[in-house]
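I am still getting used to backbone structure tokens and would like to learn alongside you. To get us started, please write out a protein record for me. Once you have written the record down, we can walk along the chain together.
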Amino acid sequence: MLLLFSGVLIVLLFFGVQLKVPTAFAVPAFASSNPTAPATNTCASATCHNGTATAGGSTVVIFPGTTYTPGVTQHLSVKVTDPTSTNTAFGYILTARLASGVSSQAGTFTATDANSAPAPNTGNASIVDMKAMTFASSTWSFDWTPPATASGTVNFYLTGVAFNPLTFSVIGNGIYQSMGTLTAAAPPVAPSITSSTSTAFTVGTAGTFTVTATGTPAPTLSETGSLPAGVTFNTTTHVLSGTPTVSGTFPITFTATNSTLPNATQSFTLTVNAAPIVGVAPAITSLISTTFTVGTAGTFTVTATGTPAPTLSETGALPAGVTFNTTTHVVSGTPTVSGTFPITFTATNGTLPNAMQSFTLTVNPAPSTSTGALAVSPSSLTFHYRMGGSWPSSRTLAITSSGGSTSYTAKETDPWLSINPVSGSGTPGSMQASVNPAGMAPGSYGAQINITAQSGKTTTVPVALTITGGDGEGGTPGGMFAKPYMSDPRSGALAAAWVENLGASPLSTTDPRNRGLALAESASASAGTWAGAVIQNVTGISLTELGFDFRASIQCSTNSLQFVVITTDGVKHTVGGCTSSPTTPPSSAPAGWMRLRFDPSQATPTPISKTDHVQSISIELDKGSTSTGGIAVIDNIEINGVPVGKWATSTSRDD
């Protein structure tokens, strides 16, 4: 590259002849940067150096960066390279100008050693160049202080020369030019983290999240806190990534810094969700039975498969001393009674179907030293039941043995007979015998209790049950009867009774007194009280139809009389009113009466199904007709088409 005045060959008239004096250093006096066109130079003497660039030669300004901060001094270097072996003396001229106005000086130069010096421009004294010439070095260092305020881009125009110090020829030198630039650094801005404060990964799945931050200069990011195994934070890319191996919530902190305070911190939550579970329905894989012995500790582990691992529960009565641990799935304990105990295990894990297993725990009697027979007292039992009355009280059997203590088991032969307990671990012992005559017709019944000792010898206790009618008019073949009831009998505001000559069947042979059930509730009755009748001996039955005859001369309102049924699941159902259910077949009523039949499936708030079992049934008057002051008379109560008997106690009336 040539300098100055030539159109094709640019000649740089660079250094004055005074440099031919062999000194170590001198500042060229005649050459300066052009005040208005700094890419060229001017020369005040014909003795300035000139020449062309030699291939392989160069000159360059070495900057510490690409930007400057207003008023902050930078340390610069200049280097001249020339391939000609005889050119061992070097020099340079450097000028700094604003890119927005190249005639304007940009900043100031300061010498840091004796090899370079600032010098006023020969064409414009307000411009100060940096110059040097040496015979031993081709590299120079000095300071440059930018303008005090940001002034845009600064261009550095450099001309370097290499020549032979032995000839001091000013022609045919190596002349090189270059230009470097610095831009004003953006003003410092404190860092700020702009990305979300949380993210979620999943166990076993690669996840990634990039943390972003602003600030000048660009901030660096760091992370503190415990990350899950398999996840890391890259401080170079600012990326949180990896494949976690554990689930949970991991609180961490990101910090952004860039030398401008305050630093930015962010509380961040990484949530690692459990890997999706592919459900496998549970299955119980252990045996369906085991055997324990009275007085001896036993254990049995129930095993089940499935994904996720199923939980196990147990239903049914375990023998005294034995429990099931739902955590360890172990049946264990020391039983105190012998017998056979059917129970059910259920395995669940959220995937259907659940697994159920019918399981039998057999508890054998403890080994006995006795070989004698059992003795039971009394040797027989007799129960009497009058329909409509209270059930017979339970009876106690005392059990002894000869020849030492022995264990025993007992079994009844008929469903109306029950015993408790059904076994004993040793004699002497006892058990209670009870009868349940519900649904049984009048008559005589026989059953047995067979008590077997450990030796295998069995003692039989005969049991007799006699059932009679109430008083020739109470009860039914099914044993049901309606007993008047008042929820608040002391208030005087309620009345309930079977009243003679008030019924629907004056010629009845089963009820010659022709009783009707009269119910009343005065306006002063307390809220929630009711008059009615409780139907006896209905526990355990299922329902298909309910009904009664309503005396037509008394106004019937929708809620006058209702059947209230409580099923064995504890649910209360209500059905009744003044109109038969549409699903019940029509039936004729006696003159002056209205026959009402109700379908249990129409009950409210929930229907009664044929598979539901009854705990209790009552007929309740809790809202009477206003014209009658809350009076109702009914007769011919039926349940499932079976007449319900009348309570033996009644009240006469004068007609």
